[in-house]
Amino acid sequence: MGRSSIDQTTRARSRRLRREMTHQEVKLWLKLRELNRLGAGFRRQGAIGPYIADFVWFTARLVIEVDGDQHGNLRQATDLQRDDWLRQEGFIVQRFWNHEIDGNLDGVMQAISERIQCRLEGN
User: Fold this and answer.
1) TM spans, by residue (predicted)?
2) What domains are there in the chain, each with its CATH number?
3) Which terminal residue of the chain, N or C, has fewer Cβ atoms less than 10 Å from its own Cβ?
4) Contact 97, 68 (CB under 8 A)
């Protein structure tokens, strides 16, 4: 038996996604790592059940997603289904568009910090 309940295909996909992060994911990851040094626990491309979250902090039950053009109308229904599943598992999903990370990284980090505070306070 494996060391966790994560399907091997999902685990392999997660590793591949870590190697192939987008420019915006890399920018955000560098900032989230700063929070990790202060006590946060974000992981990149973390497997949660059948899904892989761009960034997840399991203790705070917080998922951060970075969306680009591929998340337009065609992916909207899939994203909603995925978000519903994650919410049923007790996670909060916070999504940001690539252009937000490129143009307002400080604002993105402020929004994430506020969400972290709420989660840690039990909201």
Assistant:
1) none
2) 8-120 (3.40.960.10)
3) N
4) yes
